[in-house]
Amino acid sequence: xxxxxxxxxxxxxxxxxxxxxxxxxxxxxxxxxxxxxxxxxxxxxxxxxxxxxxxxxxxxxxxxxxxxxxxxxxxxxxxxxxxxxxxxxxxxxxxxxxxxxxxxxxxxxxxxxxxxxxxxxxxxxxxxxxxxxxxxxxxxxxxxxxxxxxxxxxxxxxxxxxxxxxxxxxxxxxxxxxxxxxxxxxxxxxxxxxxxxxxxxxxxxxxxxxxxxxxxxxxxxxxxxxxxxxxxxxxxxxxxxxxxxxxxxxxxxxxxxxxxxxxxxxxxxxxxxxxxxxxxxxxxxxxxxxxxxxxxxxxxxxxxxxxxxxxxxxxxxxxxxxxxxxxxxxxxxxxxxxxxxxxxxxxx
Length: 348
Known about the structure:
The protein is of the alpha/beta class. The protein folds into two domains: about 50-220 and about 320-345, Rossmann fold; about 225-315, Rossmann fold. About 35% of the residues lie in helices and about 20% in strands. It is built from twelve helices and 13 strands. The strands form two sheets. Strands 3-4-2-5-1-6-7-8-13 form a nine-stranded mixed β-sheet, sandwiched between helices. It has a four-stranded parallel β-sheet with strand order 10-9-11-12, with helices on both faces. β6, α6 and β7 (about 190-195) form a beta-alpha-beta unit. The longest helix has 23 residues, at about 15-40. It starts with 16 loop residues before the first helix and ends in a 5-residue tail after the last helix. The mean pLDDT is about 95.
């Protein structure tokens, strides 16, 4: 879904009219979330669980953060498994993602991206998914999203905030983009990471630091590629939460963006859309470029289809999250893992 404009107003003066009208529903939604979190009895599994989540609807850059933390843990000898709900997936139950066999429709786009690095599970029942991962040999589970799910106990929760938009108008859905009251989310966070550039998240960061919660900053750095994008004419398209961040990255690489095409987050591309993109790129004499997540949605399209042809002609811009003070964050995570293992009577 595309975020309504009143969720992220250009001016901060007063509450937008639509937000005012919807605020009673937002109050009810926020109260329901609070009650659910207070009354639920989270279940512990036998391996530590790290949760990478956010407080707003839509993307905040969680998946690159999850990948960055996983890479460091793998380097340290941990057997990391990812756990995700699998947004809009058609498969049922708890499923281990097979990148060579599963489609985006079956398991979701982000799980396929995560599965390139480590074993990945999708399950609406997070406890069942975590138990499956532990049973398959995981020593640590990283849950991509699920911060608002109170049924699986977490050992360390990271709240990811997009520094460019922050918490928007500050109201709970549907009056604003918040999944719950920001203060309630901070009560369960052990760290906050601001992603990207900007100062819209500074207010929440200040509230976190006042509570003694460490705040880190992360920027997305593109992986160097050959040939480079410097001077290349490109038609950039994407179906992510904030496409302008992708376009800024391309411009930073020196690309000449002659046209852009935005699609909703998690968009399932059609052959008609693929054909139009290829025709438009030909008319502009431009290379077609998209994000890794969008490219995954086009992969394994039926042979000979417009989507398959588009997939073959694409270039992508892989990015990696670089977290400032990563060593300090690693220390906090290591301590959380140690506490979990000591509580279970394990060495370490």
